[in-house]
Amino acid sequence: MTSKETFTKPIVRENPVTLHVLGICSALAITNSLTSSLIMSVCLTSVLVMTNVAISLIRKHLPSSVRLIVQITIIASAVTVIDQVLTAYLPDAARTLSVYVALIVTNCIVLGRAEACAMKQGVGASILDALGNGLGYSIVLIIVAVIRELFGNGSLMGYRILELAHEGGWYEPNAMLLLAPSAFFILGFLVWGIRTWKPEQVEKADFKPAPLPDREKR
Amino acid sequence: MNNDSPLKAFLVILVTAAVCSSLVSATVVTLRPIQLNNKMLDRSRNIIKLTGLVEEGATPSDEKMLELYRGMDVRIVDIDQAEFNSELDPLSFDQRRAVNDPDLSVAIPADQDFASLGRRSRFATVYVVFRDGDLGRLILPVHGAGMWAPIYAYIALESDLNTIAAITFYEQNETPGLGDQILRPAWQAQWKGRQIYDEVGDLRFAVSHGKVEPGSATSLYEVDALTGATVSADAVTSMMHYWFGPHGYRDFLQHILEHGTGEH
Fold first, then answer.
1. Interface ipTM
2. Which sequence spans correspond to the domains of chain A?
3. Would the CB atoms of B12 and A66 count as touching at under 8 Å?
4. Three-state SS string across chain A, please?
5. Which of B8, B12, B20 sits opposite A77 (nearest CB)?
6. Which of A25-34, A95-104, B104-113 has the highest mean pLDDT?
7. Whole-structure pTM value
8. Which residues of B touch A76 (CB under 8 A)?
């Protein structure tokens, strides 16, 4: 696989959210605001790069019996560092996002990339893989957030785009879009769209339903 | 060394733990002053907004803000004794921590616990604003259960200790777009001039369930409903009813009205 492929593959073809369905928790929780989604994307991408590099560097010295413990220790440390930086330099964003930033530890994309890529490849390939996956995750978050914030609140990144009815404008916001379930629907439509465009992503059915008994013989 | 030997596993874990913990500790120690400064700035911004000392809409510089904040008259109120307490240090007293200290807090009787708090601190940190030597405004901390997490606010009263001068919600986690409308400046502006008690002393303040018509019987005491956020609106009403009721600041406010605030 060329290095260009390592970077571009996770963006659509092997997108961590829409193909592997990982990292859903944060994609639902924080996408009601574009600003939060952008900050979350940057945080996750930084954590991914940091952990992928660290794990790739020591991969040849990791006994397989304790490798998960070591990986999680590294991931948790990276997340704590990012969380602290966020509270120091973006205190307003940190107040709403802090819980979700801490939860990056349990975001399966991070451990997934550590296991699938950083344990097997060199530092260069691991960085590209981390950036690619970070970008793939960010794109999904941004799409969902744009839809939810624009139609749920009439704004983007806090800037008023559609004039709200209760403030004298014309747009009646759809408040359901601001609640987590709406992100489920948008993600569902997104996965549906991508799998229609790229049918090879459709998983094989686990089982075939038994044919219905013949109407005549019933 | 063989990767599968137990010694190697032990060593790898030891080194990882040492490196990671020193990295985390170093970050925390370096960033701590910045974080504390942010916290202080945030609190002073919220308080100064309520004092009326800076013009509405103006944004003073951070230094100016901190300077104003440091110059404020901070005091501790003994809520149950309904008077100021001079033994506790207002600068170091932590009202939130006090809630978990059995000596510094009291259980709230269930029939009074409108804000679903369970316990509250016996003491509160309040700010007294003087204007030309007389009481100008009194800033009181209040809090109550919200939709998802507690709502914390400061409320400023005019010198009659009944008319609301301003409110600020400085910590909340209401649903974005619905309950977090409590942060809307236009809505908060409605609080100004509303009264908490009526002329016979009954607690009348509430967030209405509709739009408050100017000139109606309730217009002196109520602010507009929040569209689609009945839970948050009712939470705010309950919070006000608890803190300005008999188990909250009511007797203390009465005491100040009769005896004044004492020396500046």
1. 0.79
2. 3-201
3. yes
4. CCHHHHHHCCCCCCCCCCCCCCCHHHHHHCCCCHHHHHHHHHHHHHHHHHHHHHHHHCHHHCCCCCHHHHHHHHHHHHHHHHHHHHHHHCHHHHHHHHHHHHHHHHCHHHHHHHHHHHCCCCHHHHHHHHHHHHHHHHHHHHHHHHHHHHHHHCEECCEECCCEHHHCCCECCCHHHHCHHHHHHHHHHHHHHHHHHCHHHCCCCCCCCCCCCCCCCC
5. B20
6. B104-113
7. 0.78
8. 20
